[in-house]
Design a protein that fits this description.
single chain, BirA Bifunctional Protein, domain 2, 2 domains, elongated
């Protein structure tokens, strides 16, 4: 509301009225200000530099000395009162909003804590890492190869031609049997194709460990799954012999299953190695005496292995008179079954939390 500025008005009377009017209106407005924003708007309107109270105080200059004395005293008293009222209201609103926050953010500190559900690495992943760590510490580097593989790497280059009876050892899941009419694609049946891929890319000395999934078109039972994790190992260098193969695998088994382990190589056939062997470890449950775990034999079959066939060494462009190599391929689930006492390989892929939470 505009304030009187003297002239035709009875400035003194009007100003005094205004002081009273302002008093009532301002206090009502203050009481109605329900939050910090409204309060601030009130402060600007009433107490601000261009506010209504300031105008009243400015208007004093136009009054007679007597009027100025009485109206001035009233206006100054109003100023003090409104400032105090403002502070009080501000404090009141602060307390109210704090109380509201306390009420809405209320935490019952006596409630029991919520349990933390911590994830863990899958037992097969844990076993894979343990095996790879052992190989890394023996100077092997870890490389990987594709799961969808060419027939060439999975079979041909490993001395298993299309009509070879050894193909029966790996029941294959074909992705496409007639790509280009001659380059069939499959899900790799083992990680051995990584041997060829590695020898294509590296020169001796070669030392690699290759973890990965492999797939077989197989009926499942307690020790067979259609998907599995394998780790392939390949070393090519001058002067490597079966002794190096055996020493490397013995060291692996001792790291995984204890210093007192023994490793046994038994003649076996795989087209890509000569000689080929099946590797067994003395049973870490009965130490060879014979028990349920080792089917009373005292030994547990762990993997296939052998000396890389000289024809493969040659076909990779290395001189087989100078370079020899050893290779091994192991099923990680089989090793995990032994290490963790899991008696059915299918448990690993059922996502049953009762099993997984034990690791
Ligand atoms: N790839 C073979 C399999 O899955 C296992 C194997 C045998 C790997 C002998 C090798 C090896 O490297 O030398 O049945």
């Amino acid at each position: 509301m505009p304030l009187p500025r003297g002239g035709a008005y009875n400035a003194g009377t009007m100003a005094t009225d205004t002081v009273e009017q302002l008093h009532a209106e301002a206090l009502r407005g203050l009481a109605e200000a329900a939050d910090a924003r409204a309060l601030d708007a009130w402060r600007i309107e009433i107490l601000g530099r261009k506010g209504r109270l300031t105008s009243v105080l400015r208007g004093l200059a136009e009054l007679s000395i007597d009027e100025r004395r009485s109206v001035g005293a009233a206006a100054n008293a109003l100023k003090a009162e409104l400032e105090a009222a403002f502070d009080e209201r501000a404090e009141e609103l602060r307390r109210a909003s704090f109380a509201a926050t306390l009420a809405s953010d209320r935490i019952d500190v006596t409630l029991p804590a919520r349990p933390h559900r911590r994830g863990g690495l899958h037992p097969v992943t844990q076993m894979t890492e343990r095996i790879l760590d052992a190989f890394r510490s023996m100077g092997f580097s870890v490389v990987e190869g594709p799961e969808v593989e060419l027939d060439y790497y999975n079979f041909e280059a490993l001395r298993i031609p299309a009509d070879h009876p050894a193909r029966d050892m790996w029941d294959t899941l074909w992705v496409d049997e007639t790509v280009d009419g001659r380059r069939p694609l499959l899900l790799r049946t083992h990680t051995s194709p990584a041997q060829i891929r590695t020898m294509e890319q590296q020169q001796p000395p070669i030392r690699v460990a290759v973890p990965g999934k492999a797939y077989r078109f197989e009926a499942t039972d307690t020790t067979h799954e259609w998907q599995m994790t394998q780790i392939e190992v390949l070393a090519v260098d001058e002067g490597l012999s079966m002794a190096h193969l055996k020493g490397t695998l013995l060291e692996l088994m001792r790291r995984l299953f204890g210093r007192e382990r023994q490793v046994r190589l038994q003649c076996s056939y795989f087209p890509f190695v000569e000689p080929g062997a099946e590797v067994a470890v003395d049973c870490f449950v009965c130490s060879g005496a014979g028990c349920h775990t080792c089917h009373q034999t005292g030994w547990i079959e762990m993997m296939g292995a052998g000396m890389v066939h000289p024809e493969i060494i040659e076909s990779m462009g290395f001189d087989s008179a100078r370079y020899t190599g050893f290779a091994a391929g192991m099923g990680v689930e089989r090793l995990a079954m032994q290490a963790f006492g899991v008696d059915d390989i299918r448990y690993f892929y059922q996502n049953d939390l009762r099993l997984l939470q034990q690791f």
